[in-house]
Design a protein that fits this description.
GO terms for molecular function: GTP binding; GTPase activity; ribosome binding. By secondary structure, this protein is of the alpha+beta class. The chain has 21 helices and 22 strands.
Amino acid sequence: MDSREDEQERGITMKSSAVSLTFKLRTIQKDGSVDAIQDYTLNLIDTPGHVDFSSEVSTAARLCDGALVIVDVVEGVCAQTVNVLRQAWLDGLRTVLVVNKMDRLITELKLTPTEAHHRLLQLLEQVNAVIGGFYAAERMEQDQRWYEERERLREEKEQLHHGDLPQDHTADETDLPEHGEYEDADLYFDPARGNVIFASAVDHWAFRLERFSHMYAQKLGIKEDKIRQFLWGHYYLDPKTKRVLSQKQHDREKRVMKPMFVQFVLDNIWSVYEHTVMERDQDMIDKIIATLQLSIHPRDMRAKEPAMLMQAIMSQWLPLSACTFNAIVRCLPSPAEAQMQRVPRMIRPELGFFASDSELAPTNDLERDLFGSRSGPEAVTVAYVSKMFAVPKEDMPECKRVQLTADEMRERGRLQREAMASTGAEAAASAPNTHEDADETPREKEDGSEEVILGFARLYSGSVSVGETVSAILPKYDPSRAPSDAVNQPYIRECKIQALYMMMGRDLIAVQRVPAGNVFAIRGLDGVVLRNGTLMRAPHGAQLREVVNLAGMKRHATPIVRVALEPRSAADMPRLAEGLKLLNQADPCVEVLFQENGEHVILTAGELHLERCLRDLRERFARCAIQSSPPLVPFRETCVKAANLPPPKTPGALTGHDRGHGFARCRCFYHPCSANALVAH
């Protein structure tokens, strides 16, 4: 899905891209029963992992119902991992952890299965510690709010009873809010619960514990849900008694036994790598293929590259796509289920993580449609445009040549022969070239712009169709005021939907209608929506009575790297100004400033982000040679009030002073004008 040239050169993702997938899946329930094959549609958004493009993660998070958080098993939890987990926590996304690059433990680090098991345990502990920190902070804020509310109600009661309440009356009060207890076990990643995927994307394999628990349940005579719990952690299988031992029981036995995860999972994977990649053993390879009942193509068996045979075995035994789709279906919510929990917090930010069901309940028809992801004709249409992005005009479906099928080509030839036979050669010679006309769709008139601005959107309720007129609610709209209020009138704009597209990576497929729950691209917002906004339409063309603003919150960090730009040729200044306007609209994080002295300045999130912006300006938006100044990063320092010093342990001892008089020495130096200007920035 990395379609940009610089993405392919660096091997990293620099912008969010979406793809819509349909697949069939048969799932296995916890009781062992097998469901019928069902059809699913998945809207997948691939976001960058580099810290410079964290704004792309922020803009995509609101469009999603769940997230796959990918962690490198070798590098572990990095700063961007914490940022992504925090973004998912703030947006209320249910997540699945993907422990990727498992092959590096075998081929690069040369770890044994037992050592790899310890490393995986530590990695899961680190990730869960981050989640626990978010939960603890949220819980402390909730406790503080509960305490303040309780004290406020108590003071009101005391004033009502003229202070006649006893001091210890709070112990018997039943009408004041009680301190709630909340379970946090469902928040953490646990392979036994199925929300952890162990994968090697480069070798095309992945697995969850349920794959092996289903395999060994019948062999060991243990229930599948039980063996799934024992497959992760410090549990051991006694080969003599066929009993599962805990860590304490294992220590009392004083025998060397492998953890069940090592014995039943990792040993098998390590065996495939050792006999194919490390040291090829054809007899063991044939035995592995026969045991796993795989069908390997003879071409892969004769491959000179050992990795090709290993990938063929692992991809058939533990297919990556089936494991990922199964985890998404089983662990992540559907649009209707997710919106019931997430959308109330989006339109009412004061609701915290511990909001009750009554607080999350809808209060009007608009919220009922929005929370339930209704798509019927009576539902209000609500869509959120998270960002605007630019697409080269030649990549638009309207500007591409139509690919005719074989039947269409034969039919076209038959019609052409009939025309020649009926009108004669002279008339046929003067007739228009039907080959060119049929092979190419009408192109748009050239307007001087080589880029088309589209909106990256998610439909929460209702449906949208080409040609409909919708109301664009801009981010500065105040939901506390009525839509007819004079303050809100400038932030409600009407626009007509020119085209709708289903995004397939870099390709776009034109569609006529989009139902609720889908991610799509929309054309017709250029000049109305700058970066993000909310689209609404009442059913049957009625007037909107309730309006929500889903774009009112800031979703990304402020850019800090400042660069001044100018064209090499003064004649290209209008092209640079127009290119900066396109860049400002197409990039959700960049800021463009037009200074009073005529200087053009852009602010980016980092050096890599700056490099991408300059490349887009030169090659796509401005299409002219551009000179840039050295990047400037402001350093801002300040003073904050520290907490009071704790009381001394020894009565009467000195602890220091946080107020009073003191003496300090400092030396001042005169700086040149350039340094003063730098400090001012």
